Amino acid sequence: MTRIDFHSNVSNQLDYACRLTRKALAAGCRLVVRHQDQAQLDQFDQLLWSFSATDFLPHVRSSDAHADITPVLLSLENDPNPGRSEILLNLSESIPADFARFERLIEIVPQEYEATQAGRARYRQYQQQGYQLNHINAK
Fold it and tell me: The domain at 3-137 falls in which architecture?
């Protein structure tokens, strides 16, 4: 069963996602980062290049020709099934349809009211489906 971690009270979702991406790569994991908004995904893409002066965070879009050999895939909600990865990092406000195929799902919930409400709704839905949930308060 997929392990689900909720990180709440996050002040800057994209910066926090970069830190989690770096941590996953350091552990040798492959991950998919999913967002519902193209502009936000583009911003995250750029942030991965400039996030750290000493770390290289290799990433491509899930549709890229190099997706099979790149450990971090960036994906929109409606993109085709993105390769094999252990972790799904969800930056979207909806439940990913294919989350159960991943070993681990990480939900990052920003502090903004609407995002917090959407995160709580996702939490309840996972809970109702019988998933054990882990909560990490980022504050």
Answer: 3-Layer(aba) Sandwich (3.40)
